[in-house]
Amino acid sequence: MSRITRHGRATSPRIALRSRTKAVVAAMLCGLMTVSATAGCGSPDVGGDSGGSAETASNVGTRTPEQIKKDGTIHIGTFADKAPFGSLTGKNSYKGYDITYGERLAKDMGVKLEWVPVDAASRVEFLESGKVDIILANFTVTKDRAKKVDFANPYMQVAFGAVSPTDHPVKKVSDLDHAKILVVKGTSQDAWIQEHHPEWKVTKFEEYAEVTSALADGRGDVWITDNTEAVAFTRQNKKFITGITSFGDKATIAPAVHKGNDPLRTWINDDLVKLGKEDFFHQNFRKTLEPVYGDTIKPDQLVIEGGRK
């Protein structure tokens, strides 16, 4: 037997049953998607578990330490592709010098840790828009950045280094005048070149993985980055050399918070003093950086204890 639809077409009971079944399934799926959209997806804490967060992106960055403790989770922005400082090594698993520091910071505050991956150009924006409480992403302190975010006291010191192929090494700063230079957009090297050498031929990339690939396939002659990263990269990639080990402005690296968040900045500074009494960053160096650097870089060339300036 067939029945007449409201459009005047005949349908069999079997077809009508299938239609009703599809409608029920569609409604169930819609409900599930609505629940998922409402609940959201969590990110890993320091133990690697995932969990949701009650905070919204717009208010995370302005929270005081007491508010973070009440909410139970701190959001820290870091690199996912900048070993040995911060890199994603597996599903929801990070490791590196900045990572070890972030884990200790969360422990000292007594909260769970949610890592938020950032790239060099998005670090300021993630603080300004309230996506994270703190940036721990090899963040060099500069005057321009300090106009937009607040830096705590430093925990590391760096200069620039230049990486080039071993068979075509760039060994002098004057060699850069005629080289095809590669940098990561939004880094201190990018800003320094724009200010001091706008005539240099520069190609910019969003990610560190992109710039190293470009260097490997010959799209550039030399990559300018932090000398600490340059040495780490060339120690692990024998086809390249850090031909210039130190140039440009000597600078410090520090945690950064949302502009005006003095309570959180002060808490970080106080915690740095506490960590300095333990020689925490020397221990961190031995754990995360010494296996990479060997005796090429000594701890005191890089480490700052107690937040001293």
From TrEMBL:
- Residues in Solute-binding protein family 3/N-terminal domain copies: 73-292
- Keyword vocabulary terms for this entry: Signal
Spans of biased composition, class Polar residues?
Answer: 55-65
What is the superkingdom listed in this entry's lineage? Bacteria
Q: Which InterPro entries match?
A: Solute-binding_3/MltF_N
Q: What is this protein called?
A: Glutamine/glutamate ABC superfamily ATP binding cassette transporter, binding protein
What SMART domains does its record include? PBPb
Region entry Disordered: which residue ranges? 46-67
Segment forming the signal sequence: 1-39
